[in-house]
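Posted in: Protein Modeling Q&A

I'm a second-year student putting together a small comparison for a lab meeting, and my supervisor asked me to include a predicted structure for Cytokine receptor common subunit gamma-like. I've never done this before, so apologies if this is the wrong subforum. The sequence is pasted below exactly as I got it from our records. If anyone can share the structure token output, I'd also love a short note on what stands out.
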Amino acid sequence: MMPTRLLLLLCLIGPVFAIEAPDVDCLIINLKNVSCTWNKKGTPKVNYTFYSSFFNKKEKSCPQYLTENNMNIGCIQPCESGDRFMTFNTRLVHGKDRFKETHGLKNRVKLNPPTNLTVLNGSDFNLWFYWNHTSPAHLHCVESEVRFRTNNNNWEFSKVSPEIQKYCINSPSGSSRYELQVRNRIVEGCGLSDFWSDWSEPVFWGSNSSIDSDSVPLWMTLLYVVGAITLILLVVMLLQRERLKIILIPAVPKPSPILHDIEDWFQLSKGLKENFKASYNEQVCPVREYNYVSQSDSMNSDDSTSSVSTNQTHCSVSIDVNDPEDLYVPLSSSSSQVPSEEVLQVSD
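Accepted answer (user: helix_wrangler)
Welcome! Here is the predicted structure, written out as tokens:
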């Protein structure tokens, strides 16, 4: 009766002491190694021996264990870049306990983060960041993602196309502090990975940067110089505005009462001025006016004559027309009497 009870007790408590099957999680690192761990549920109670193999390849024992509290929790073993497209088999062994699993690693690839991250303030006044990929994957199979922030504000994210290993921030502020990091992964055309790499080490530019951030950017210096030159030119133009006005809009000369000064208004050559001067002489005829002598007055004279009003001219004098004052001949007053010797007497 007693043995039967003991056997029944062992059957009831047996599952309690049974070893729980560990969950093996595998990931291809940088297309060079396979990393498998089995501590997702906590540190195992026993040390397992790990064996693995890719499809149609010989099974191998673990060459390098990962430990925690002197207990094996994982294994790292080398692989080739094309192995991720094959089925991966694992086996954990402890005494009589054996736990087998099959894994698909095509989408479980994690690359190493980019390295040699540098920053350069370009001649185009933009901020350029450069980095290098360290994975054996072709550049057209690797895409990148950038995150940057200014003055420790929120991160901004931006995708970078495959084969490109640079990023540009347009017109950065010299008074701000920029921080940037990069990560990468396999693109869809080469077997999209579900895992991004870790973020790279940050690089800084601006205030408190490891590079010479206290110096004023070149584009700001040029802007200051151009602004100063423009200001100086404006001041000079304002001071010389009257002179510029004379040059652009010549003032009309004030007319002169002297006739020959009109020629000075025009910018004429000396030879052209000579053409306006008269080079010939004219005869000037002095004119005299004679008064009419009535017949009654003439009868009182000894001789019976009548005086006829007439105008006579005398053109025997030649006067140069170049002297305009010689052209003026005063006329005698209408009430003045002409000397009798100059009156022509006409017989009846």
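A couple of things worth pointing out for your meeting: The radius of gyration is 60 Å. Residues 124 and 219 are 8 Å apart (CA to CA).
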